[in-house]
Amino acid sequence: MKASDNDTQGMAYLASLPRRVVTLYIPLLIFVFVLLFPFYWMAVTSFKPDNELLSRSGNPFWVIAPTLAHFKKLLFNTSYPEWMWNTVFVSVVATFVSLLASVLAAYAIERLRFRGSRQVGLSIFLAYLVPPSILFIPLASIVFQLGLFDTKWALILTYPTFLIPFSTWLLMGYFRSIPFELEECALIDGASRLQILWKIVLPLSVPGLISAGIFAFTLSWNEFIYALTFVSSSEVKTVPVGVVTELVEGDVYHWGALMAGALLGSLPVAVIYSFFVEYYVSGLTGAVKE
Amino acid sequence: MLHRLQNSRNFLGLAFMLPAGVLLLLFLTYPLGLGVWLGFTDTKIGRGGEWIGLQNYEFLWGDSVTRLALFNTLFYTTVASVIKFGLGLWLAILLNERLPFQTFFRSVILLPYIVPTALSAIAFWWIYDSQFSIISWALVKMGLIDQYIDFLGDPYNARLATIVANIWRGVPFVAITLLAGLQTISPSLYEAGAIDGASGWQRFRYITLPLLTPIIAVVMTFSVLFTFTDFQLIYVLTRGGPLNATHLMATLSFQRAISGGALGEGAAIAVAMVPFLLAAILFSYFGLQRRAWQQGSDQ
Fold it and tell me: Which InterPro entries does the annotation name (chain B) (predicted)?
């Protein structure tokens, strides 16, 4: 290879355009196409009338006579609106509970430096590595014993087990970046720790709170195995579980309605994410780099 | 007295840890222990169990479906993780170039990771449909095949199909995190390398890779962990079929415990995943950390 074959940042201007097209633009476009195609396909299918859906002739990539029939069926003939409401409710409350607990925990570990705080910090990190697919069986029996089976509270109380470790970890990083001197001044002026946390630390870590909040929200919105196991009545189900367990009946798949359900269920997280994408990405990368 | 307590770090620390601590102890630590205990009992749904020692594990060891599920899990994890790493690194390097619409690319790339897996798995289910698959349709129109492919009905196809869906979902996470790592590498290192006459590959091998090793270790630990314990993708696409060809440990554990009612046996399958998880964490973490350290000390 010659020196002109540079393809790393900083010397990109040296590479010739045709070379960049082959090594950079074409692969990148293929990646984007493959990563986005299922969403496109989901959207196109949900607007297709059944006769177009089930025909092999014509061009399947486009809709000739778009219809809202599948959305109508979904919204008026199934419990979909209820699942949507449940998912919103559970995600918002679980996120709120987790953020509250995580802010306090992260502040205690990072700033109070109480005896054993390092060990507690480490065990919070380890808690994040415990996967839900190992916990769901014993948790199901605990949920049952507490009388929470088939209620939204079963989900609201169990989701923090994977939300708190992640949010705490993320917030610890943010708190670390706030200068100690600010707190010392306030302590000398007689502020209590709670006042310091509320009036000094939290306002300075708003970006961290936003990214922790979005993470917690998307993680609860996506949660599947707990919602599948701890809830059995249709009126308590969340969108992912409802779509998978109730929209598939017998041998006839209502693909249009299924895709409409998947599309509507994906939209809220996609919209929230698109507004806060910078926080999300910096939070994700920051948390992993720690 | 109250004032002194308020200023004691240990007391305050305990008080601040309380909400998180109670939730985690009650719904994480305790169930973890309970799960291990359940694995040693013959508990069924609706009936308490007796301690039966290692009987569950002995039975599972002789059970061909469990062995197949273990094999599937290892196969699924290895193949998917390796490809996710390769494609993720490639995508990260592409995104690290100076590009028009850079922010746009970085944000749309992450969508498969944000959207609920169960819902995107439904989209894949439709893409893989035996009669109306768009892939089959396109391949037939291009004249590459004459028969529609039965993606999820044939054991080998189903394995590949689920792995492809898993890779699709996982590549964005790997790519975005590695991209963050790439951005911490100073461009001056590459310029120095180029002046010394290092080729593109040499610069990748001797600058990018060593500096990226710690973040690769973390990303791959997560990737392996989440792939190994994957549940929803398989549950939605195949429920473990056809002929148990795509059963993973997690789906088998769900099937035996919740659908089959044998809580003890299901818990034993879940607990059997733990040693593999620990091994994966230790291997990727310490293994790669040590390599990074050795490479650092060479200089």
Answer: MetI-like, MetI-like_sf
